[in-house]
Specification:
Blueprint: H1 11-26, H2 29-36, H3 40-54, E1 59-60, E2 67-68, H4 70-97, E3 102-108, H5 119-130, E4 134-140, H6 143-151, E5 157-161, E6 169-184, H7 198-201, E7 205-209, H8 215-222, E8 225-230, H9 233-240, E9 247-250, H10 251-259, E10 263-265, E11 272-282, H11 289-297
Parallel strand pairs: 3-4, 3-5, 7-8
Antiparallel strand pairs: 1-2, 5-11, 6-9, 6-10, 6-11
Helix pairs in contact: 1-2, 1-3, 1-4, 5-11
């Protein structure tokens, strides 16, 4: 495709870039149809218009499937930064008018919804009540992805475990989360009358998280025979429920299976640890009425 200079960015260009972002997130034109509310042929025409406008090929599409080109990945990254800058401008105007309107992007780690102290839920309720025109965008992600989103401006706030803080972010403790060691009702440990000691526990296969852990959490897992990994707490629960593994889960998350007698805690007096869940924002952020209201609702 012949290269060309881009003289200016129009409203139509912004529309095309938003369509491109949605298609990239969905992974195909067909998957993006319902989300965008337009047909595949219309999406294809819009993508061709954007490629002609930019003078570069953004994606490969055909029988082999959908894939971004190197240029497409770069354009997606740059457009995210531009959209964040536009949203920041809108937030500044809102701050001047003291009227909350616009988008609020929050990233949260999985499985916090069962936390009994519903502080995040209450803060989102307050935000919606006081700013009905706010568009809430909540994404579930890993701690590392949330921190990256905060640093590059894609996210306004995040909720994640406090393990190794980044220098460019502010962390405020929100929850103190207790995790215990669990097995399923089909595991040999489930019906044992005597709690197993360390030598007994190491005879059974266990799960270790592949996400970052504190020194205390690492020490607990070193006491086990970890033969499987999981990227998040839901993955750990899946493996525990096979009856083949033992693993640590937050007590509030495991409670749904404990109540149904599908899981039980093993040696709970000694096989447990606590984690701090923090609300995280970027240092040096500009005033943002929506974010400040959210933090105030959390008593932070």
């Amino acid at each position: 495709m012949k290269s060309k200079s881009l003289a200016q960015v129009t409203d139509f260009d912004l529309k095309l870039l938003r369509i491109f972002k949605t298609v990239s997130e969905c992974g195909s034109f067909s998957a993006a149809e319902s989300l965008l509310g337009i047909t595949r042929s219309a999406i294809s025409l819009h993508m061709s218009d954007l490629e002609k406008r930019l003078g570069m090929r953004l994606c490969q599409r055909g029988r082999a499937g959908f894939a971004l080109t190197d240029e497409g990945r770069d354009i997606l990254h740059h457009s995210d930064s531009m959209m964040a800058a536009i949203e920041n401008f809108r937030q500044q105007v809102n701050q001047m008018h003291k009227h909350m309107r616009g988008e609020f992007n929050i990233g949260i780690i999985n499985n916090l919804v069962t936390q009994p102290r519903m502080r995040i839920t209450g803060a989102l309720d307050s935000l919606r009540k006081n700013g009905p025109e706010i568009r809430l965008n909540l994404s579930m992600s890993t701690a590392a992805d949330i921190e990256r989103g905060l640093m590059d401006g894609r996210l306004h706030v995040g909720a994640l475990p406090l393990t190794s803080p980044m220098s460019g972010l502010n962390y405020s403790q929100l929850y103190d989360e207790k995790s215990m060691l669990y097995c399923s009702n089909t595991h040999p440990l489930f019906n044992m009358d005597v709690e197993p000691d360390d030598e007994a526990l190491i005879q059974y296969d266990a799960i270790v998280p592949s996400f970052r852990m504190t020194a205390e959490t690492i020490g607990m897992h070193q006491m086990l025979n970890c033969t499987a990994t999981a990227t998040d707490r839901e993955g750990i629960a899946f493996l525990i429920l096979t009856g083949r593994f033992i693993g640590f889960l937050p007590d509030h998350y495991a409670a749904q299976w404990v109540e149904k007698k599908l899981m039980r805690a093993i040696a709970p007096e000694r096989m447990h640890f606590s984690s701090k869940i923090a609300i995280v924002t970027r240092k040096g952020r500009r005033p943002n009425a929506i974010l400040e209201h959210f933090l105030h609702a959390l008593d932070l």
